[in-house]
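Hi, here's the filled form for the chain we discussed.

Project: internal
Contact: R.S.
Residues: 500
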Amino acid sequence: MAPGADYSPQWSADSTTLYFVNAAGALQSVPVAGGQPHTLVPDGVSNPALSSGGDRIAYIRAGRLQVLSLSGGQTISVAGGDSATALVWVKNRLFWAGPSGVFATGPGGPGGGVGPVKLASSPDPSGSFVSIAPDGAHAAFRSGGAILLVDVATGATTRLGLAAGSGNFQGWSPDGTRIMHDGVIADMNGQTLARLPAGDPSWSLSGQIIVGTDSSLIEVNSDGSGRQQLATGSAFKQPAWAPDSSTFVFVRGGFLWVAGAPGGSQPQPSAIDQAAAVVAAFMQARLDGNIEKARSFLDDNGKATYAGSGPALIPRGDAGFRRYYILSSEVDPTSPNTVRFVVRLIFGRGGPIERTLSEETLILKRASANDPFLIDRVIVGPVRDLGRGPVVVAVRITPSRVEVTFDSDLRPATIAGVVLQDGQGSPVGGSVSYSDRTVIFSGLQLAAGAPYRLVVLPTVQDVGNRNVISEYDLDLVGPGADTQSQVIIATPSPSPNAGG
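And the returned structure, exactly as it came back:
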């Protein structure tokens, strides 16, 4: 995922799958054990909420409350759910908050044939509900500079903290009987029970709380005791415990990470994960104009590449380096200590309009699995104009499948212009399909380490009849059997605002 994305991670009931919203607003799922991310909804998603049974997921899209069946794939819009601001499942019923109050579906759940039921009214027309407790009995409401706790059954409110407090809601206990806000744990009467480290907390079913801060990851008991530091480094955000309390997920360096519970077996980050963190830090330093920090991620070969007449480490002048995203990532199948990333850089000249792009292939190496990755080599592609036609924004590759995702919907009749070639320039066999802005090559037998090329011809059009501005080529390497190393969690920031 791109740096700054709001993932809103959700765990499946059996703790084996993560659901999240990527930087492009797509709702995706990925197996925790490794595999390719799967797009469930292509764009515009916020506030996902997985049902307790794990068979449905609710979310907001284009201001409408929708529910997707994960087994059948059907989507329904929930009556009365427009402008919802908070979602939670309580058994089979979906609860949500809107501008005027708290609502729930009828006893049959979404699609059960019974209209929504209003459970509580908004205590302040100028405020807004921010969350509903897991048991549906209370809701957190922001009013001015404070958080109010609303009893859904009676409508009674309790002000949390000082009247002039920051109004920072942070979460609930799993049973909904305690609330975390402004660095404290309080009961439903607003009485402070314990204090928490400043940061993003998540409360497990086993009673442990993980707090992600700007510089560390901390575990603490639910009574505030037993504080221990689990990790240090750059910001740890949005931790979320798995239902079985054995693992948790968090966001760091623009990527999702999964870790084992303290005291259990700690899964080691894959080579892709470790290299991706280096790439994210390197690119952010370049965006910040911090040349010394950027150089710290280069080995001697890498420093030589960016010196002299080589590519600019910090783009200057009117180039206007605006943002970047990772297009593809691969582990060298012949060397687990070599990783290849293709990074797209977006530039603009004056004003907010983005006009050009360039791609850099970064080769990262490390001496052993115990050493950090450093950027050893860079291959710089040509500067290309940003057109108004479709653009490739992500490529995912396994030995049997290649997925090519675009930033817009394509005309199906033109996808024949998306071609996968072998090292001799001949089309690779297999079948081709198209779904959710993605051209999929399946039934492949890609050879580990062999060269391949993705070609997108100018004949490819989006649904607005706009052609790809010029032929686009991307060199790929056949992956090894370890498909987990090919998972691309990084996705682009929103589509560029292309100028004429």
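Let me know if anything looks off before we file it.
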